Batch of 3 targets.
Target 1
Amino acid sequence: MKKILALMLSAAFIVSLAACGGGDTEASEELSISDTITTDIMEFTLTRVEFADRLKYAQFISGQTPDQEYLLPIDEPQTNTSYTFEADDGYKLLSYSYTLNYTGKEEIEVETAMGISAVYDDGYTFEIASDAYLWSDYISIDGTTILHPLDPQGEGRGYMRVPSEVESNTAAPLKITVSIPNGDGSTVDAVYTIR
């Protein structure tokens, strides 16, 4: 009887340890571009990651439809050189886009950065230099954005300034980390493998 009781207690202990270590399953998954992370209030999909020498800059006027190419890679230099997103010598702009479908039932304010960073060669971390969130008629830049129930899906964009080696050394791993909010203020942390 003591052996049976000891086995039952051991089994219960093992089950409780497994339950305690459960955490966010998304964090350990191997995600790729176009995979979706789901929280209790959001569906986040990383849709694009690419290197660029320059990104589209645009000035915004209240009430004007935002430039839908803002922060996307472009080939030619822009005429307005006061405000441009251009890589310095020896650097590249690591540009990304994501879509966000808000499924919550109450208005919420979130960081447009979504906790995104780039991790190169298993340790070098690069933070966002600029980011934005675009709807068809509105844009939030470098800060927070307010999501409303039943909002149409929007698109987030941004970039990190990285050494040219990050692009040229294709043998080294490159990952994008994200941190997507739940309704209770916690987050689902995940990693997208770029290469």
Target 2
Amino acid sequence: MKTIAIDVGGTKIKYALYDGSLKNFESMPTPKNRKDFLLAILKIAALYPDVNQIGIGLPGIIEKSGKILNLPNLNFLNNFNIIEYFSKPGFDVRIDNDVKCYLRAEIKKGLGKKHKDFVLLSIGTGIGGGIVVSGKIYSGQGSAGELGHMIIDSGKDLSFYAAGKTLKKFDKKEMQRVSKYLGYALINIINIFDPEAVLLSGGLVTNHLKEFLPAALKYARANLISSKAKTTPVLKSELGEQAGVLGAGLLFGPGSGKIKA
């Protein structure tokens, strides 16, 4: 069964055809208004006229009905029901939070296959997160895992201090700042969840991991409360930039925890 798999980010839309594996992986800049965004999705769908299934990962909080509650970096889609919109021309659409799509990919195809309990921190234009307990995605009442919004300092959250959108030069000074605040985040994540592993994904991880992770780990491990927690593996996802697209394709798989109309 074929699915048009789409991962929507703050700066790029990545997409491919999924039929058990990804084919024709491509990307485009994320449009800056609703009209152009919807047109972009339709143009992607038009590449595969014989496929009516579309899986979409979106960076924010979404209701089971398909209504988008809050996309901090794409707020022109807030209060819009994307499933209803695309069902009118006959598409079967399933959507989920983008990091939950990453989690789905990790569980089925990535490092998550080796761990029953882990936390994923995705660091891109914004910062997202997800939690897996006993091999299943933990959603709480629907929005669990929004780790980018943990308050770090002076009422400001992790995304305010360390997301890709805060970086201008990617120089040593800025990377030191990212290291400090991601160190704070790792302390909180490991102290609270005591996971088997923490996985890292996202554009900043793909392109700049070596510049910020060693210092972040050094700071975190010096401040963890459990001696065993100090050895918690912090691992880069092996799925790379295709993880979100793969997870969007898996929205039509069995046990996917999908959101659909």
Target 3
Amino acid sequence: MRVAVLGATGRTGSRLTTLALGAQHDVVAYARRPDAITPQPGLAVVGGELDDLDGMTSALSGCDAVVVALGPKVSQAHAPIMQTAMPTVIAAARAAGVRRIVVLSALGVGETFANTRYPYRFGCRTFLAGNFRDHLAGESLLEDSGLEWTTLHPGPLGDGAATPKPTIIEATPDYAMPRAPRTQRSDVAAAMLRMLDDPTTYGKRMLITSARQMP
């Protein structure tokens, strides 16, 4: 499989890139800072901006799937990253003939707010609210895109080792995630890679946490 990764310089996107290469996939890393990515066999690095339709379409040409692992820092609550990127990604995917897209979101974005509990829910309504509005504005475009999309919604991300059996489940309204749904980036990256060729996740919002589920 040839996979395009947006956000390959980030802590989750870089892990996914490493996993994909280790699984013998070819990877195209589309990045605003291509010099920040170390060249590796099987990895093509393409520099470009998130609103450059021609450049992104060229990068996605020949790819089987695209992974979006973008997102502002909490300190950049008003940065319109997903609002800027997603219209371009969708248009570029259509133009390049790429149907499969997996997008990294967050627990509490949009309809997944119903899956949160306190104290995490408080954060969704306060210091995370700006980031989540940006995510929702971009991700809401997927529903009518005609693409085979999946969004993955982890809790607060950590840099620990992968866990043996992270909780991964569809975001149905009656399911409550743990009160402190800590999630390792390694688990998120592995889940996104597996979902690329998992048609059971098409058109779904998937929850993930590395935390043990508690009553």
